[in-house]
Design brief:
Strand order of the largest sheet: 2-3-1-4-7
Number of domains: 1
Radius of gyration: 16 Å
Order of helices and strands: EHEHHHEHEHEEHHEH
Strand content: 5-15%
Distance between the termini: 11 Å
Number of strands: 7
Bound molecules: BIS(adenosine)-5'-pentaphosphate
CATH topology: Rossmann fold
Oligomer: single chain
Amino acid sequence: MRLVFLGPPGAGKGTQAAKVANHLGVPRISTGDILRRHVADGTELGRKAKGHMEAGGLVPDDLVIEMTRLRLRQPDAKGGFILDGFPRTIAQAEALAKLTPLDAVVNLFLEPEELIKRSTGRRVCPSCEAVYHIASNPPKKGGVCDRCQSALTTRPDDREPVIRKRIETYERQTAPLIKYYRDRGLLREVYASGLIEEIFLRVREVLK
Ligand code: AP5
C-alpha cells in the first residue's frame, strides 16, 4: 500500500506509521527523521534545514521534495510505503502526485492541549530513533532506550513555545491538505485520542 500519514505535531503519526509499516511490511519514510539525520551529520541539507526546524517552521519545499523523491526511488519503496510528515504543503502534494499514486491518506486529529502534552513528554533515542513518552509510553529503565540502551534525549523543537509555533505552522500550511485529499476521495479520518493500540485498531479499520 502507498499511504500518507497526515496530522498536527504530536498527534502520533510516527507511532502509528511505524506500527502500520511493520504490519504491512513496507518502509516508513519520515521526512522529519531524515532531516534530523542530516542535521546530526552536518550535511549541506542539514545546515539549511536546522534553523527552520528549531524555529517551528517548515523546511523549503524544493529541498524536501527532492529529498523525498530520492528516497521513494530506493528499492524498498517499490512495493509500497508509508510517508510520515510528507506532504506538508499543497506544493509538496502536487509534486508527490507526479511521483506516485496513493491508496489512502490517514488524517490523525487531536485537541491542541493534548498535542502539547504528547510533545513535551516525548523522549527519543538519538541512535535508533525509537520514540517514548515519559507518561504514556515510558522506557523500561528511566532515560534509557529499550532497544539499544542509548541515553534518551529531548528533541530541540519539543520546547513548548516551539511546539505552539509548529501547531500554528500546521494550521496555516498543512491543514489545507485535508480538503485537498478529501476532494480526491483519499482521506481517512482517525481520532487520535486513546491508547496506542486502540488507535492502531482504528487506523487498520479505516484502511480495510
Ligand atoms: P516531524 O518529525 O515530522 O514532526 P511533526 O510533524 O511535528 O510530528 P511529530 O514527530 O512531533 O509528532 P508525531 O505526530 O509523529 O507524534 P509521535 O508519534 O512522535 O518534523 C519535524 C520538523 O521537520 C518540522 O517541524 C519541519 O521543520 C521539518 N519537516 C519535516 N517534514 C517536512 C516537510 N514535509 N516539509 C517541510 N518541513 C518538514 O507521538 C508524540 C508523542 O506522543 C510521543 O512521545 C509518543 O510516544 C506519544 N504518543 C503517541 N501516541 C500516543 C497515544 N495514543 N497516547 C499517548 N501518547 C502517545
